[in-house]
Fold:
Amino acid sequence: MRLRKFLASTAIVVLATALLPGAANAYVFTGRYWCGNPPNAAKFNVQFLSGVATQPPPSTSPNRAAFVNAMSAWHSTEVTFVAVSSSPLRVDSVFNLTATWDGLTTYNSGSSCLGANVTSVINRKYTDGYSALTRQGVAGHELGHAIGLGHSSVNPAMMTPYTSTRNAQGANTPRADDIAGAKARY
Ligand SMILES: [Zn+2]
Structure:
């Protein structure tokens, strides 16, 4: 099976973080986060771009549902994502035939404090062939990157780097390691 690597924004940030000694058995951080969020009240506004917007495609779009359901799944962990008309945190679906990733999060800021555009996308080249839950897992994983989580080697963890591993672990929704990471960050 092809390994579809989820790269956060800057591959350097994520991969370098994953290689840090001592970070191999727990959640890791990318080093970037939303500095304005008070502790224990992590609420993130999300703007849906055209590929997952209500019109078009219709609200029943599986790509939109992937993010809507992923946001709901994160919500159960005290991390709240709310859909709004405009936000620096944006989600979308794309159709990138040359990419080897099925999900990607881009930080368009060099600062550790996020505030400029952060965009999480799923790549329909792959996700169109996924089950709804697997697609949701990709979206939820990318939202994890969007709030500053890196790749975890814990089993199970939604922030595991690969879709195949996530499926094998049954981690298409936030697991204890992901939740601990989000709570520690915010
Ligand atoms: Zn990733």
